[in-house]
Write a structure and sequence with these properties.
183 residues, alpha+beta, 3-stranded antiparallel sheet, elongated
Length: 183
Amino acid sequence: MKKLAQYGLLHHVFTKKTLLIMKISTLLLFLALHVSAKDYAQQKITLNVKSTSFKTVLKAIEKQTTYRFFYSDDVVEGNKPVSVVVSDATIDKVMDLLLDNSLLTWKQMDADKIIIASVTKIDYSVKAVEISGTVKNSKGELLPGATIKEVGTNNNVQTDANGTFSINVKDNNARLEISIVGY
């Protein structure tokens, strides 16, 4: 009976010590991971370059930090020389300065991998053209209620009571089709 009581007490003390060790280990692991994540997030970059190739600037950043850049050579070859002066700057600020007014973009993958890619430039210069007019029959009479449709699209309008219309079409080469019920 005495042995059972001692075993129960010993088991209880052992369990308490094990739980305490596990709690302390978990706390230490959490603190180590927190400090490590903080180091990655707070990498500061200092640069003072003038008219330097884009690749050379990326290599300078790699020497100062744990960041590694991934890109296709043909993407960065045509990039103009860059000038950047920063002190204790974040990677976000440096990359925004480097890629300002270029056709390149960047994305951070994981904690230390950065991908640089080209952006397709979109031409917004094509503008809609407004066409307006009056629809008349062969006798010169106004035709209210006629439908004017841009061929190849669902874009259409109807003439008003005076036979006039106004329609926005995609470009100067658009073709119009005019129809009226009962004519």
